[in-house]
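Record 1 of the preview.
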Amino acid sequence: MSSKKRYQPGDPRLIVLWARRYAQSRTISFLVQWVFIVIMVLVIGLAAGLTQIAHEQHRMGLFTLSIGAMVLSALIMLWFSMSRWSSDLIFSITNWLYGREGYASWTGSSGKEGSLPLWTTGLSGGLLAYHLLGALLISFNYMPIGLLQPWSALYMTPYLIIMVLYQQLGFWAWIWPILYGIHGVLLYFGVPLRFGREYELLNIVVPIFGYGLIAILTGHIYSRYALLKLKTLTRNAIPDREETQDEEAEEVQAGDQGHG
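->
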């Protein structure tokens, strides 16, 4: 016997079900964060590339400047991920983009809305520190740049899975860690998925943000479907105003005839 719940047409719990699915799949806020993070990671990546070039060419001035720019960019990214100002900015942009749909949220496993617990902040900080360490290892030629994406996947994949599970996001959220992890394994074993050396930075930028974008857009498309289902259910569940008025008029008329 299947453990999956089956609801009959007209069951009011269907409205709750599709409202939850809609809230779980509202991904515009993730897209807004994605844009900001892409910009900051590109800055860090460019600084790391300059650091490696300066180290190979023994240009200590450029090397020191690049290291400073990379660390500063990482600190700005850490501040942005923890700042109340950035949260308010993302919230405002998200509400503006959703427009007439109004506000909806999914509280996940915490059961309450608000900031994520401290341990998730620690994991996010660890993610940043881990990638910064990888950039430094490459800068000092302790790790080939071709291993940057597999190195990233070692932390990024379980990190994303933990966040998906904790926030109880929809199916769309699994696309990102699964594809990113598979990409890292294939790249490590030499499957030709690489860009040329002159575009080396794209070997991590494209998978980390490309798969994220695919997941976010999938969730957004599904949210449109869930919203359509929700509207259909609520229209069917709530009687039309004119029909209600007609029924009330018939009841009044029947009552008058009974008194007559």
